[in-house]
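Structure (tokenized):
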């Protein structure tokens, strides 16, 4: 893409990690046909050279990003990571053109609403914040099958939607913050599911069952889920290497608790799941994949290295 690329067909991206990088590449391929593309910036150009070779364009400052793009998608871990990039003469808000700032990170609904109000006031309405957190993990980002949960004013959402659709299925759910409420609900379900799978895996192995066979069988019944599909191998192989870091689930469940408090909802499962992930992080597992809940559960017995019993033939039949 060159300087003649149309601003109305150009997306800016902040945050080119596990999720942001494949999302930006999908958008770049789609927007190239319209004379636009994707511009990016960050702390180090060298870190993203492979992405630049695939069509993304580097700019030096967040302000340049805002001036070149109609929409800037933020895929940073949380709003405190964004705040320093907004202000000052080189910040996103120092641009001179209308801009939609699309927060794709998983953030607090209350905090993103407050950010939207502050940004609108600081720019006299020139910059509009929407929230558009995503669900589907690294697999969904790479396959462009993400669920994109969008909240914000209809006019700003309409501007952002063509940039989001190449990444998955984007749905407008309500005013700003609605997407983050939806993501909090999503994370409660995901957290509860992965914790249940972890416990079931430990129970099954310690009872002498072949975990791979069992999970294949469960996948065809009511226990089947996207989480089981994507994490089955990890549970069977005890592979907890980083992908979706468990510490972020602990953060996200805190946002779900905020939603519960704001709506006067006395939760049951959320409290238990949040306590488990807080404990998991406190035990030093936070940087590993969500499937590390398996190791956390196993350790609670008092010895993570306890070997499962050997299978000694078929289980005895129980006659009623």
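Design, position by position:
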């Amino acid at each position: 893409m060159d300087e003649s690329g149309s601003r109305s067909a150009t997306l800016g991206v902040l945050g080119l990690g596990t999720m942001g990088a494949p999302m930006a590449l999908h958008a770049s391929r789609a927007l190239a046909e319209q004379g636009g593309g994707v511009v990016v910036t960050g702390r180090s150009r060298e870190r993203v050279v492979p992405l630049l070779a695939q069509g993304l364009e580097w700019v030096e400052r967040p302000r340049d990003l805002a001036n070149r793009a109609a929409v800037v998608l933020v895929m940073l871990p949380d709003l405190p990571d964004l705040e320093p990039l907004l202000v000052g003469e080189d910040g996103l808000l120092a641009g001179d053109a209308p801009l939609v700032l699309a927060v794709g990170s998983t953030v607090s609904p209350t905090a993103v609403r407050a950010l939207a109000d502050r940004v609108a006031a600081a720019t006299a309405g020139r910059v509009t914040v929407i929230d558009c957190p995503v669900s589907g993990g690294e697999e969904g980002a790479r396959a462009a099958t993400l669920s994109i949960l969008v909240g914000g004013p209809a006019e700003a959402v309409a501007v952002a939607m063509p940039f989001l659709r190449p990444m998955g299925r984007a749905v407008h759910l309500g005013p700003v913050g609605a997407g983050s409420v939806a993501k909090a609900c999503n994370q409660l379900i995901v957290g509860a599911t992965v914790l249940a799978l972890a416990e079931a895996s430990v129970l099954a192995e310690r009872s002498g069952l072949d975990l791979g066979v069992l999970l294949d069988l469960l996948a065809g019944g009511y226990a089947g889920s996207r989480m089981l599909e994507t994490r089955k191998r990890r549970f069977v192989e005890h592979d907890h290497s980083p992908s979706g870091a468990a510490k972020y689930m602990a953060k996200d469940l805190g946002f779900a608790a905020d939603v519960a408090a704001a709506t006067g909802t006395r939760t049951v499962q959320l409290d238990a799941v949040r306590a488990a992930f807080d404990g998991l992080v406190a035990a030093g597992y936070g940087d590993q994949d969500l499937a590390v809940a398996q190791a956390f559960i196993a350790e609670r017995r008092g010895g993570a290295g306890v070997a499962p019993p050997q299978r000694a033939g078929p289980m005895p039949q129980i006659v009623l």
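Reviewer-requested clarification: The chain has 13 helices and nine strands. Confidence is low (pLDDT under 50) at residues 1-5, 303-320.
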